[in-house]
Amino acid sequence: MRIDGQCHCGFVTYEAEIDPGAVLICHCTDCQRLTGSPYRVTVRVPQADLTLTGNTPKVYIKIAESGRERLLHFCPECGTPLFSSGTGEAAATWGIRWGSINQRADLKPVRQIWCSSATDWFGETAALPGTPQE
């Protein structure tokens, strides 16, 4: 599936060819802290299938508990998280942040990882009252 996306302010833009079956939810504590949310939705893509079409994102290097480096790419202007990648062999696969994808409504997660860190109320949100807009 061909997608395109951008940060909130439009400074960083991209295009990619993705597999809609590679969309996942991550419940790890790093994703919780970095998003300010109980989980992050990401689509994994070969780096070769992702093309930056706008300005270059800024990179923050996070050292995981395992010692692995994670490169977190974000807009230097508005701070929108855009991608994650690794180093060495892990650099071949990137994670595109679901919220930055223009076609995100068509992309439904197919699996979850780091479920041991999931909030205990995660599955209960559908039962909460809500409004279409506010």
Q: How does this structure look, described?
A:
- The chain has 134 residues and is mostly beta strands.
- Helix content is 5%, strand content 37%.
- It has one helix spanning 29-35, and strands at 2-6, 13-17, 23-26, 40-46, 50-52, 58-63, 69-74, 81-85, 93-97, 111-113.
- The protein has a seven-stranded mixed beta sheet. Strands 1-2-5 form a three-stranded antiparallel beta sheet, with no helix packed on it.
- The longest helix is centred in the N-terminal third of the chain and has 7 residues, at 29-35.
- 23% of the residues are buried.
- The mean pLDDT is 93.
Short summary:
The protein is mostly beta strands. The protein contains 1 helix and 10 strands; from the N terminus they run βββαβββββββ. Strand 1 (2-6) and strand 2 (13-17) form a beta hairpin.
Task: Produce the secondary structure layout.
Blueprint: E1 2-6, E2 13-17, E3 23-26, H1 29-35, E4 40-46, E5 50-52, E6 58-63, E7 69-74, E8 81-85, E9 93-97, E10 111-113
Parallel strand pairs: 3-10
Antiparallel strand pairs: 1-2, 2-5, 3-4, 4-9, 6-7, 7-8, 8-9
Supply the number of helical segments: 1
What would you call the shape?
globular
Structural class: mainly beta
What would the average pLDDT be, to the nearest integer? 93
According to DSSP, the number of beta strands is: 10
Low-confidence stretches: none
Report the end-to-end length measured between terminal Cα atoms: 32 Å
Beta-strand share of residues: 35-45%
Q: Largest beta sheet, briefly?
A: 7 strands, mixed
Order of strands, main sheet, comes to: 6-7-8-9-4-3-10
Succession of helices and strands: EEEHEEEEEEE
The share of residues in helices is: under 10%
Gyration radius, in Å: 15 Å
